[in-house]
Write a structure and sequence with these properties.
Number of strands: 19
Number of domains: 1
Order of helices and strands: EHEEEEEEEEEEEEEEEEEE
Number of helices: 1
Structural class: mainly beta
CATH class: Mainly Beta
CATH architecture: Sandwich
Oligomer: single chain
Radius of gyration: 18 Å
Strand content: 35-45%
Shape: globular
Length: 303
């Protein structure tokens, strides 16, 4: 979500076409820690196509022995927990020419019916759009682990850009992209392709690699899905509803070799952006307000 112009043109390294996943029921079982869940728990079948990324180095099954070290289960909250979350308040466009002004107003971010609801509004308080961007910076950050959230994206339309991602707490290798970025979930416009991406490099601008998943004949905004990354010292893997759809295991920073920059603590970000260089502006068919809904965010590490 940082400065990402012309950023998601990735060359597929492998494809798992026509893989059947049991996604809907998996996401609904949000009361159980996802590290103990299996997609086979459900009986509603969605067909995903996975492309991109490097072939995983080893086992891609969920690490069921990893321990929960941090969470925000929004079903337990009456209001957003300010001991866990910060609000970024600005209209700087996120380095991407985005159109929204981020606020901490309850009409843009609130707890409703046991969920975090982030809402983008049009022509609001003197701004073309308002929305919310929440972070755990200086309140929680981690080095390695499984970071996941159960999210229902806003209805698919031009100009949408919801995201669940991570940035370095201290940027020890310098400014973006030298200190890295981990995008766990990004969707734009039709929400028919899920993007999991890492940004790094910086010697000649942004280098990015990752993987994508699609829902032929449908899109990711129609249901809740569990989006996750398993981040280890030698590999970063992306998951949707408990199924790995790609990984990377080579990266670097401009002046520092692998494993930089992904050997430092990162914090968590949830936001709903509108417009920008990647999705472009909403069109006449785009309607607001629209909302991104989050049931929980959880972080696991080896026990």
């Amino acid at each position: 979500m940082h400065t990402k112009i012309a950023r998601h043109f990735l060359v597929p390294a492998f494809t798992l076409a026509g893989l059947i996943l049991l996604s809907h029921s998996f996401a609904q079982q949000h009361a159980k820690p996802a590290a103990t869940q299996s997609a086979a728990d459900g009986d509603t079948r969605d067909q995903f196509k996975f492309t991109g990324g490097q072939k995983p180095l080893g086992d891609t099954a969920l690490h069921k022995d990893w321990k929960l070290i941090w969470e925000d289960d929004f079903s337990r909250d009456k209001q957003i927990d300010r001991s866990k979350w910060n609000f970024e308040i600005d209209g700087k466009g996120g380095g991407n020419g985005e159109l929204q002004y981020y606020t901490d107003n309850a009409k843009n971010a609130r707890i409703n019916d046991g969920e975090l609801v982030i809402t983008a509004r049009k022509d609001d308080d003197g701004h073309l759009f308002t929305s919310a961007r929440m972070t755990t910076s200086r309140k929680f950050s981690c080095l390695y682990g499984r970071i996941e959230a159960c999210i229902k994206a806003p209805p698919a339309q031009k100009g949408n850009w919801p995201a669940f991602w991570m940035m370095p707490q201290d940027s020890k290798y310098g400014s973006w992209p030298r200190s890295g970025e981990i995008d766990i979930m990004e969707l734009i416009n039709k929400s028919d392709k899920l993007y999991g991406t890492c940004h790094y490099g910086g010697e000649k601008g942004d280098i990015h690699s990752g993987a994508q998943a699609t829902l032929p004949g449908s899109d990711f905004s129609k249901d809740y899905h569990v989006y996750a990354v398993e981040w280890e010292a030698k590999e970063i893997r992306w998951y949707v509803d408990g199924n790995c759809y790609g990984s990377i295991h080579s990266w670097h920073s401009a002046k520092d070799p692998y494993p930089a920059p992904f050997d430092q603590k990162f914090f968590i970000i949830l936001n709903y952006a509108v417009g920008g260089a990647w999705p472009k502006s909403p069109d006449d068919a785009s309607t607001f307000p629209q909302s991104m809904r989050v049931k929980y965010v959880r972080v696991y590490q080896p026990g």
